[in-house]
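Good morning C.,

I know you're traveling, so I'll keep this short. The sequence:
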Amino acid sequence: MPLHLAFVTSARSDFGLLLPLIRAAESDPRFAVTVLITGMHLPGSTSLAEIETAGLSSPLVMVPAAPADDSSVQVAMAMGTAVSGFARALDRLRPDLLVVLGDRFDMMPAVIAALPLTVPVAHISGGELTEGVIDDSIRHAVTKLSHLHFPAMPEYARRLERLGEEPWRIHVTGEPGLDVIPSHPYRPRDAVFAELDLDPARPLTIFTLHPESMDPAGSAALIARVLAAAERVDSQIVLTHPNSDPGSAAITAAITGFAASRPHCRLVPSLGRVRYLDVLNQADCMVGNSSSGLIEAASFRLPVVNIGERQRGRVAPANVLHAAAETDAVAAAWTKALSPEFRAGLADLSNPYGDGHAVERILAVLGGIDLGPRLITKRFNDGA
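The tokens, ready to paste straight into the viewer:
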């Protein structure tokens, strides 16, 4: 009998990172695959359409869990609804392993539901830090509810041990979403810019700013300061929507108005994984506070301006410039990121988050796992 893997995706970001692993598992006779869809993948959304058109052969199972709005109380209520939904889905499917990635709040209900059902959890991207958002606490909580860990680098593996995880459960693999970057069929610059109706002769910035969930009420002031910095920079800008975290509505409203009034700006709610990689390959810099700026951008030697506290604590490659969430600081870092001198200094940069072989490492572990009592019975590693 093949090992039944149930993958959980809750947002455009984790689906893009999981997709190479899902596809490889589908083509491997050792595994049967189900994809559980929740969170931001709303009916009619770009991200759900991307899943539906990705060519996956596995069953897709919806677990509705979207907040009614971007308030903190609605997020908490949606998490409760999702626990019930995942309990029903997991009880019906009874997968051998639940596979989750990252730290979003809408991932937490899946692992909570798995606990009393004794479905073991494999967690990708644990051990990282993002001290400016609630995701940091969620990630560590998911670690304690998981039975196998696939961190990106040794530093993160050591942190998992300090959290009390037994060393045999921890396998350093890199990030699976990086595996497809070397082989992606990139389109030429003229084609990418023509699709966006922008000028290929001018610089391009890709911009994604998420709320700092420790201070969702401050989102309107945050985006106002950052867009004031954008006015000082000579660059075309592609702006994408933030995640549906508390405080996201203010950011979405501000960037919608900003893009509508400026001919050199384009608002694209979600680029989709294929087009996102094309834009990363052709962009001159990335600005915002997305984890993609720290994890994926280095593979393109792309300059990044990381704003504020959201990613504080995460390992940042040399392409990342940190800026306080103030207009002057963002404008200065943005200008530096666009300079030819800074880009030239990244010519020898390698990405510490992976070498392109994460998928094969993860599947090698999953393919040889013993599903017996040792896996499901967690013991605290006091020797860490």
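Safe travels,
E.
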